[in-house]
Amino acid sequence: MSTLGINPQSDVGFTHLTDEHPDTGVFRLSDVRPRPGQADRGGSCIMRIPKGRYEDVPSLVNGLQSCDLDHTSKDANGNDSLWFDQWFSTPEASDGGYTFRTVLRAWNSSQQTHLINDATMVWLEKKPTATRCLSWELLTEVGACNCRGSRLAIYGPTWKYGAETELYAWLSDFEFTDPARTGFAVNSWASDITATGFLANVSGSTSLTKCTYSWIAVPKNKKGAACGSFGTADVVDRKGLAPRNTGRVEFEKGKFNKKPTVIAALSSFDLAGGRDLRIGVEVEDVSKTGFTWHLRELRPGLSSVHDADARQIPGETTLTMLCGAQPRLILLSDTTDSGTISSVADQRMHGSTEVFTTA
């Protein structure tokens, strides 16, 4: 059996499974090993795409749903660094279907690196020939300086919707150096959407040295899709009452005639430094009328997320969540028109998530 680019015997500090698992669109590190006594370098497993789902090699766009990272971690050079990475191997044909490896890992690490306690990634799949929804993966090198206002322009023949386009960002990976001094902050948003492209804006704390976002473009008012937003600002008194990091999103009446699927991923956060980076989004109580969301710091008894907002794109079709390689341009299936964002930020704690929803 192919191990899909991984040597389970030689990667000390990683947990790599060689058994195949069904492709569900979600990979949790706790699925391959229990929470360790000391943070490690990550792990991976092989996902199987069923026979007959695709005629050609599929691709996918991914996002980070949650992470629990040790703030004292060192990189391979012994420097203070939280360099977290998500990765997919290129799908390989296997028994009429495809298999691929999904990885959550500490990048530029050594056996002395102890970064990851737990993490969860999610993904949306792509039909090789689909063009109605577009996605890009953008790596931003921001350097050891405040990166507010960093901008990336996307132009070219693949851009076709212009100002009539909804754009959503999923955080994929990032590196923070010396976060104890400046905290953990990263954010991204689209602006200047025109007939030829858009600007992808990135901001963050001075400790943010690089980050990668997956951008998803969906036509406005697309049949079978609904766009909206939600956040903790909707459920908290900003004058000092205790924040409630949960809320209920109600779909437009009659939007769905059956229970949709909802997938959530972080798009921004702003958390205090000098402590572990723990944050995640959860979705539950999903019905054809709405869903309940929670933003958590992933540690019982602590609730330090103060503000957050989110957008959600429910779609009318069943979302088949499958991933492949991450090319610069990733085309989503014509039927995967779903998503949701939420955000959290600042010294008191904030963040963002995007959630994709389909029926």
Automatic annotation (TrEMBL):
GO biological process: any one? cell adhesion
Instruction: Supply the Gene3D superfamilies for this chain.
Output: 2.60.40.2080
The protein's GO terms of the molecular function aspect are: carbohydrate binding
What Pfam families is this protein classified in? Answer: H_lectin
UniProt-listed InterPro entries: H-type_lectin_dom_sf, H-type_lectin_domain
| Ranges for domain H-type lectin | 248-297
Q: Which SUPFAM superfamilies match?
A: Agglutinin HPA-like
Name used for this protein in its record? H-type lectin domain-containing protein
Protein species of origin: Elasticomyces elasticus
